Amino acid sequence: MTRHDGRAVNELRPVQIETNYLMHPEGSVLIQVGNTKVICNATIEDKVPGFLRGQGKGWITAEYSMLPRATADRTPRESTRGKVNGRTMEIQRLIGRALRAIVNLEALGEKTIWIDCDVIQADGGTRTASITGAFVALTLALAKKHGEKPFAKFPIIDYLAATSIGIVKDFGPVLDLCYVEDVAAAVDMNLVMTGAGRFVEIQGTGEEATFSREELNSLLCLGEKGINELISIQKEVLGDTANLIGSAKGESK
Amino acid sequence: MTRHDGRAVNELRPVQIETNYLMHPEGSVLIQVGNTKVICNATIEDKVPGFLRGQGKGWITAEYSMLPRATADRTPRESTRGKVNGRTMEIQRLIGRALRAIVNLEALGEKTIWIDCDVIQADGGTRTASITGAFVALTLALAKKHGEKPFAKFPIIDYLAATSIGIVKDFGPVLDLCYVEDVAAAVDMNLVMTGAGRFVEIQGTGEEATFSREELNSLLCLGEKGINELISIQKEVLGDTANLIGSAKGESK
Amino acid sequence: MTRHDGRAVNELRPVQIETNYLMHPEGSVLIQVGNTKVICNATIEDKVPGFLRGQGKGWITAEYSMLPRATADRTPRESTRGKVNGRTMEIQRLIGRALRAIVNLEALGEKTIWIDCDVIQADGGTRTASITGAFVALTLALAKKHGEKPFAKFPIIDYLAATSIGIVKDFGPVLDLCYVEDVAAAVDMNLVMTGAGRFVEIQGTGEEATFSREELNSLLCLGEKGINELISIQKEVLGDTANLIGSAKGESK
Amino acid sequence: MTRHDGRAVNELRPVQIETNYLMHPEGSVLIQVGNTKVICNATIEDKVPGFLRGQGKGWITAEYSMLPRATADRTPRESTRGKVNGRTMEIQRLIGRALRAIVNLEALGEKTIWIDCDVIQADGGTRTASITGAFVALTLALAKKHGEKPFAKFPIIDYLAATSIGIVKDFGPVLDLCYVEDVAAAVDMNLVMTGAGRFVEIQGTGEEATFSREELNSLLCLGEKGINELISIQKEVLGDTANLIGSAKGESK
Amino acid sequence: MTRHDGRAVNELRPVQIETNYLMHPEGSVLIQVGNTKVICNATIEDKVPGFLRGQGKGWITAEYSMLPRATADRTPRESTRGKVNGRTMEIQRLIGRALRAIVNLEALGEKTIWIDCDVIQADGGTRTASITGAFVALTLALAKKHGEKPFAKFPIIDYLAATSIGIVKDFGPVLDLCYVEDVAAAVDMNLVMTGAGRFVEIQGTGEEATFSREELNSLLCLGEKGINELISIQKEVLGDTANLIGSAKGESK
Amino acid sequence: MTRHDGRAVNELRPVQIETNYLMHPEGSVLIQVGNTKVICNATIEDKVPGFLRGQGKGWITAEYSMLPRATADRTPRESTRGKVNGRTMEIQRLIGRALRAIVNLEALGEKTIWIDCDVIQADGGTRTASITGAFVALTLALAKKHGEKPFAKFPIIDYLAATSIGIVKDFGPVLDLCYVEDVAAAVDMNLVMTGAGRFVEIQGTGEEATFSREELNSLLCLGEKGINELISIQKEVLGDTANLIGSAKGESK
């Protein structure tokens, strides 16, 4: 049985990552996962938040937003409403936490990396596309910095990508849900994994529903497959820069 | 190797649930999990939010807060700061979502249940204690309503409880982390499950760390054991009211 | 004529003060005045607000809040509404001002005492119960500090307690109004007095009503009687710590 | 011993009330009490707040503000800071409550009176000058309405004025404190009374100080004297309109 | 003397307008003016704001925002700061007002058009690029609506475009300032004009400087030239849709 | 054809400027332009905002507000609504920018001048009356400072005044619109000019309308005439202080 867009249940949507998308940021990427489009920018700031000052460690923090018409109906701006809603906060905390898992914060030194993920078009999976794209923007920013003044050790330890999986009526477990599938899913899971195949984050949620241990296992297998493919694409677009990742001395091997 | 408080790695802290704790709420509970103490109140309101109006369905929403001195250092009040922070939003969204998974919202009818979880003393695991306690407060509130004017079908389908598990240095996977263990954990997981042993929510996070599939499985086994024990305690404190849960006609069997 | 709960017009409700109620705060009390229950915590911070810096004086500030279901109907949280309302501000300003009247701020030194009064159940008189309980929490916190590193002079000069009085239809002046009496009162007064019988604060208000000089005098006599009884209870629960209050050298006599 | 501005301890500052000060409001007054100058405007709105709808009763609400340079140093605007502070809230609640005590809200009918008190120059006693001026603005507004469409019964029952009294070092109890005296006062009291000599509001506060029953009585006597004089001035500036106040049929006698 | 990017003083930067840029909005455009890039989306909502209800007229309102890294240094998000700043408000009011000048609001009927201008890359002239792009997005949205259910009269009366002009040291009056010129300009002017060559908005500002009547005239001439060129580009990208503009019956001629 | 208040199309309303209006501000003015009344105060603060620190330059910033009943209907306070609206922001940015154009900020030194314009009665032209009045308040404040400790060079370079002009149906271009004319105007323009006849700010806006080059020229001529008259009035009320303006050494000539 094929999905409404012709994909197999274990098939990702077409993914494109355009590097150096904008002129000002240190690292800038436009990632497209099917119809979902996110601009991911990385900014390097030479100071750390108060709670880290003087510890020789860096920090990574993320902000996430959607254009009002990223969605089918117009969503009022959070700036106009005067506050950031719970969903946005949840997503930006997730993005920051996920990236910190593959960065050696001591090697980074007393710097803050600001990750900005701005969804210009949404069709499901915006938070996972944000993580996958943000990883590339972050790597580009640090590689640029490394080119100017090399780190003793390049701070990025491993690859990082994310995808969604879910249990959809009539299909069972499926990989990389687009919006119509997401709305119909009884179980919704976001998975963040490293190049070494280790978990960084698992967030599985029954939406007025529950799931069994067997279903969980099927979802994790599908997710792992998708993430491997996403990491291959990241490697490709990074080209030589990819050699810096996980390198002992932060030099290309 | 025993933990700092003498527990085995697969042992819960002592749990107490005092029902009918406050006089005004329809359902009210004080739950203590070790030194963590949370007041959980359930309020029934005879209307639903705008997006559900006219659909014959109910809704469950939760709010979570901590007293400023629930913590070792004083935490400024969110009311004084003028906004609810991201961690609070994440937790209250989790509590509401978890409870909705075991409630038949059609059977509930056009009502909103407000769940208020107020942590008066915190020592790790406040969000999972909130869910475990809120389940009891919710059941009491609906049982009271049922006593006044019986539901055609009692809206609570199954039990629901939550616990935390994590990977702590020198101990590996452990159940029900108190605060000092939580701070030291490389992996932190919150698990919400039903009486039937199905998952409602899995949130596993590497804190500047990652974890393998095997570690995940160990964590899930520990969590399942803890949740079974918590559900036994819920049954006990609910007494006869427990018979209503999952009953076909919402009558005691 | 007896009141709806059987009390005489000059009779307080039963009062209980549980000391060391929570584990984290320097001073912690649960005060119950009839069905009104307030958690009062005192926190000592080793700095003062900007306007006092460098003057060798300390400061006392208070915050007050009610759980949403402290009341018969659920009151929306001030954190969710994004602002503290006028009634709350009025009360927290009153609590801070009252406590400052019986503390020698020079003897305290450059410290801020934060008083948190959180009403978990409300049945009238929450602001006066807060003051009466906060006095005990404050004394416990300073006594603990004094035990670690004695003050040259113990900063608490005298006892402090508060009660409400009012003029209620069919009863005239009555002491310690519970909620149903408070709603029915034409005149509502809050009185804060010291152990030496001096006034710290008188707030008398006609609610779409007025009152004469004679009525004022009756109210003050009732209030004085109630406050004397409250101070006896404070002395009792403080035990030996009570000896520190007003002591010349801050040592037990 | 004379005060720094040559007044006796029981002497008010010069008071001027200019009626019909601005062109748009239904009632508009500029009141000057010494150097304190407040614009008091009354607006009649043909609806009531939600909690009163359908009860045939009216409401009076007040807002209070100071120009940034009403004070010796510039005070930042509350609009710029994004919130109204506690002192402002306390004052506007007091003004509204005081006026409601001398208005028959049933006779008013389903109308809201908005009282705006804007201090353009401050030299102590701004809240009491606001009440004294607001009473005149309110009377003018209702008299104008009465002229267009007579009330069955004119809603204002009695006069209302307010003053401050305090205990100042070297002087003891004094009437109508200007700013330098207010800062130096150990006890600060605001008194609101009616034309019949009854109390509407007593707010007496020790500022890091306390006071005795005898001192209270002296303060009340001074305050009563001042309020009688203020009410004479109100009568004079109201002219014939004064006849409406307390009139059985709301017609001039 | 040529400008730093080789342009003559009366030369626009290269302009590109990509229509149907995003999939969800009724009208969507990416406009590039040199390095300035703005996404302009138009949303049609079938209701009007309260002040227009029942008058048979429509409304156009605009919101403007910049991605944090649209600029050389990262600008904190307005949603995070909790309020929209003055510059943003000024710009979005300008965009809305400008568009309303060339729309027949009666012909539009009781609809609101939301215009969202999101700057993804900024290099001067973001507000004028927003207006020029928004005009095209608006036209596309109304043309789409017209295709589904024709307007009695197509609501767009005339073309509308905007540019900036300024007086820059060493160059005098110049057209279409990029960021480095804008910063150096003594006089900064934004001009909005119609296809018929009439003014909609002139905003000329001395930045710690002033300007004469002759200088004003030079600036207006330059601006008029630029706007004519921008309108030619609009016509070209609109293709056949352009025929609807100003058409008597709203049908293509 | 005469205007509704009997003025010719090129005639200003009666203007009065009362200097030293309030006692606390360094410079204080009540300006009346017809029925429009604005209190303009200038405050000198001995520091500059962060972006100017250490540059030896001063700054001028303005805030603008209206009393709730400055208008025919009561306008809710911005402090109560918790935010400053777009119109207010636009106006206060305009006032600050205009004044900075005629002040030598280097000669001022590291000081901030706060200009507060509070409209107590509004009948059109409040922003231009604010600028005209604020210029006088600013001059008075700097002259006072100069009297205490002379500036090497008096910082005010030239006079500054502002007026409105517009195109009103049946009248064409008219000078100094009152409220009823402003509402009816198709084109609305605010003009700020110096004593030397140079432009500081031109803001011309079609309100759902447009205007030609010829109309623009007529408006500018009318505006110039009005501003010349306003500057004559400023000179007169400033008396000898006027000599300081534009003086080489900041001494009276």
Write the layout of secondary structure elements.
The structure is a homohexamer of 253-residue chains.
Chain A: E1 15-19, E2 27-33, E3 36-45, E4 59-66, H1 78-81, H2 86-100, H3 105-108, E5 112-121, H4 126-148, E6 160-168, E7 172-175, H5 179-184, E8 185-194, E9 199-206, H6 213-238
Parallel strand pairs in A: 4-5
Antiparallel strand pairs in A: 1-2, 2-3, 3-5, 6-7, 6-8, 8-9
Helix pairs in contact in A: 2-4, 4-6
* Beta-strand proportion of chain A: 25-35%
CATH architecture identity of chain A: 2-Layer Sandwich
**Assembly annotation:** homohexamer
Low-confidence stretches of chain A: 249-253
Q: Looking across the biggest beta sheet of chain A, what order are the strands in?
A: 1-2-3-5-4
CATH class of chain A: Alpha Beta
Structural class of chain A: alpha+beta
Can you tell me the number of structural domains of chain A?
Answer: 1
Q: What is the residue-mean pLDDT of chain A, rounded to a whole number?
A: 94
Terminal CA distance of chain A reads 46 Å
- Name the helix and strand elements of chain A from N-terminus to C-terminus, one letter apiece: EEEEHHHEHEEHEEH
The helix count of chain A comes to 6
Largest interface: A-B, 33 and 33 residues
What's the helical proportion of residues of chain A?
Answer: 25-40%
Keywords (chains A, B, C, D, E, F): Nucleotidyltransferase, RNA-binding, rRNA processing, Transferase, tRNA processing, tRNA-binding
InterPro entries (chains A, B, C, D, E, F): ExoRNase_PH_dom1, ExoRNase_PH_dom2, ExoRNase_PH_dom2_sf, PNPase/RNase_PH_dom_sf, Ribosomal_Su5_D2-typ_SF, RNase_PH, RNase_PH_bac-type, RNase_PH_CS
Catalytic activity (chains A, B, C, D, E, F): tRNA(n+1) + phosphate = tRNA(n) + a ribonucleoside 5'-diphosphate
Binding site for phosphate (chains A, B, C, D, E, F): 87, 125-127
